[in-house]
Every structure is written in C-alpha cells, then in structure tokens.
Description:
CATH superfamily: Exonuclease VII, small subunit
Distance between the termini: 47 Å
Strand content: under 5%
Number of strands: 0
CATH class: Mainly Alpha
CATH topology: Helix Hairpins
Structural class: mainly alpha
Number of helices: 2
Number of domains: 1
Largest sheet: none
Shape: elongated
Order of helices and strands: HH
Helix content: 55-70%
Amino acid sequence: MSRKSAAGQPASFEDAMSELKQLVARMEAGELPLDASVAAYQRGAQLVKYCAVQLEKVESQVKVLEGEMLKPFADNAGAEE
C-alpha cells in the first residue's frame, strides 16, 4: 500500500499514481459497493489534484532551469538552431 502523510496526502507523486491505479482497478472490476465507490471516486479526485499540483511544480522548475524558455524537441536528432 502507498505511504501517506498525517493529512492523507501521498508521500510522493509515484505513491499517488500507484494508489490511483489501484483505485481505478478496483472500481473497474466492480468489486466495490456503491458507498465505497463514491469514497473511492472522491479519493481519486484528491489524488488527481495532488498529481496535477506536483506536475505544475516540476514544470515551473524546468522553466527556471531552461531560462524561462522551454525549447521544442527538434524533428531531426541532428538539427540544431
């Protein structure tokens, strides 16, 4: 099972994704009663929000590292600008 902090937040992006995959698998398998399905959906929404925030943080860090200019991938590996 994934690790969680005291507030129920995952310990990492990877833990959140793992928990989310497990929730989706259980919901898709139809093994949850209605109440548990609603709770799983709510938890999944929390995990998606957590992951989105983490990805935004990383994107901001990459922008800083790239001098505020993200460079598109070149179509050809040898093409330089």
